[in-house]
Design brief:
129 residues; alpha+beta; four-stranded antiparallel beta sheet; three-stranded antiparallel beta sheet; 7 strands; 47% helix
């Protein structure tokens, strides 16, 4: 079934909605400004370092999501592009369950959940095909 729609040598990238990516940038910049304000107003340096670290993590997450996008299908493997993202071989998928807001792909021993709420509409059409 999958070989018909996704040949082994092709690559498909499923993109995030721009809003989903930009939220991390806004959070990161907001918390960075907050950390700088706290640095000059308050004496609690530990809390300032926490906010600065949180802002840097949000900005790194923004960059990672913008660069690698949400999902890739390549060489017969579907993979969620996160630092510890799951992957499955397309040939091993036994069941696809469509719930409102997500798809659950199941093999004999693994499960991969795809959040359709954060996928760009054009990419969702591509994923559905």
């Amino acid at each position: 079934y999958w070989d018909t729609y996704c040949p082994q040598n092709s690559e498909m990238i499923i993109s995030y909605k721009k809003r989903s990516i930009n939220i991390n940038l806004v959070y990161g910049l907001f918390h960075m400004v907050l950390a700088f304000i706290m640095m000059y107003v308050e004496e609690h340096l530990l809390m300032t370092y926490f906010w600065m670290a949180f802002s840097v993590l949000c900005i790194i997450n923004y960059y990672f999501q913008k660069t690698y996008q949400y999902l890739s299908i390549e060489n017969g493997i579907i993979k969620i592009n996160e630092p510890f993202g799951k992957k499955l071989k397309l040939s091993e998928i036994q069941k696809i369950k469509k719930n409102p807001g997500d798809y659950i792909l199941k093999t004999g021993h693994k499960e991969l959940t795809i959040n359709t709420q954060i996928i760009k509409p054009k990419s969702l059409i591509l994923l559905n095909s």
